[in-house]
Write a structure and sequence with these properties.
The chain is mainly beta. 2% of the residues lie in helices and 50% in strands. The strands form 7 sheets. It has a 6-stranded antiparallel sheet, with no helix packed on it. Strands 1-30-29-28 form a 4-stranded antiparallel sheet, with no helix packed on it. Strand 16 and strand 17 form a beta hairpin.
């Protein structure tokens, strides 16, 4: 009879490397070619790891802490947003700062390079700013009712959506007023744009999700309530037909194919642990969740009753990010350990 593997043996079978940064990881970003995974730290520095062997280089980052990071599409540069009110653009190879921009009076919460590389979006408080890659301010949008909690580009890099209290705003680059104003009477705290731009969905503080089918937003709003807590995690599967969501312990997957989820029964994954992270595999069929007690769980949404694999680490999972090709998973935990795992063979 084969012996049961210990937790350490199970982990070693898929772990590429692990590194203790001895700090809280605020954000994780894979390079577009999957050769590197960058993490920003609460102390301000940024570490860029070789995804295969865990060797790394360190950028000095920001005074008081780095909030978010974003890779340029050609993988040569990294943009960072800091608690010092600055935006920095880095040359990854030389580790030198190419530009330092004044992104806000205090914190710059969000930073995102456009998919085509022509723009960098940043948000600080209620203000969204669009920059050129060489640091010129192109546009400034001040129409937000409260702090911008999330933002995302469309795939064509022509529009960017933001979430704040009671509104999702969609801006067309070069036009001063929002092109669409999507209303919902709650604090919106997460945002996800469908892969082909068909749907835009937000998670709320009150424990619900709301969504709009584009372009006829007035006729197609959905409102799904009943989550245990606020909905912080939204993740599309590879073809955009399913959206995985979580608020509390329940992982709920909605069918967004065709007319969308209205009137359809969702798949609910059998989970009894508080979920902190959720991520669909790119170019694959796995859904991965991380929990407050340190579990990393692999699922197939076609088999919702039980997980495929379960691993345990020593601390709450704070970040889960699949590589673009779906072959590797970056994991960060509350104890400051950064891990890179191979996709398990299941």
């Amino acid at each position: 009879m084969p012996s049961l593997k210990s937790e350490e043996e199970k982990t070693q079978s898929i772990e590429r490397w692990a590194f203790d940064v001895s700090d809280f990881v605020s954000h994780v970003a894979w390079s577009h070619n999957d050769l590197f995974v960058a993490v920003s730290l609460a102390s301000g520095s940024i570490k860029i790891f070789n995804s295969k062997d865990g060797s790394y280089k360190t950028l000095s980052g920001h005074e008081f802490g780095t909030m978010e990071i974003s890779w340029s599409p050609d993988n040569s540069k990294l943009a960072s947003a800091g608690q010092d009110g600055k935006i920095k653009i880095w040359d990854v190879e030389t580790q030198k700062t190419l530009k330092t921009l004044q992104g806000g009076v205090q914190w710059v919460e969000h930073i995102s390079w456009s998919p085509n590389g022509d723009f960098i979006a940043s948000s600080a408080g209620k203000i969204l700013r669009i920059w050129s890659p060489n640091g010129n301010l192109i546009q400034e949008y001040k129409d937000h009712p409260s702090t911008i909690t999330a933002m995302q580009w469309n795939s064509a890099s022509t529009e960017i959506a933001t979430a704040s209290y009671g509104k999702v705003l969609i801006f067309l680059i070069g036009i001063s007023n929002p092109q669409k104003v999507l209303l919902y009477p709650s604090s919106l705290i997460s945002l996800s744009w469908h892969l082909n731009g068909k749907w835009i969905v937000a998670g709320t503080q009150e424990g619900s999700i709301c969504g709009w089918q584009l372009p006829n937003v007035d006729e197609s709003r959905i409102n799904i309530q009943g989550y245990e807590t606020k909905v912080t995690q939204l993740s599309w599967n590879k073809n955009g037909e399913n959206l995985a969501t979580v608020g509390g312990r329940s992982i709920v997957i909605w069918d967004f194919s065709g007319r969308g989820p209205e009137g359809r029964k969702p798949k609910v994954l059998g989970n009894d642990k508080r979920v902190t992270q959720l991520s669909y595999q790119n170019c694959g069929d796995l859904l991965t969740s991380g929990t407050k007690d340190g579990s990393i769980i692999f699922w197939r949404h076609t088999e919702p009753k039980k997980p495929i694999l379960v691993f345990e680490v020593d601390s709450e999972i704070t970040h889960l990010r699949w590589s673009n090709d779906g072959s590797s998973l970056a994991i960060c935990s509350d104890d400051g350990v950064v891990r890179a795992w191979k996709s398990p063979r299941v």
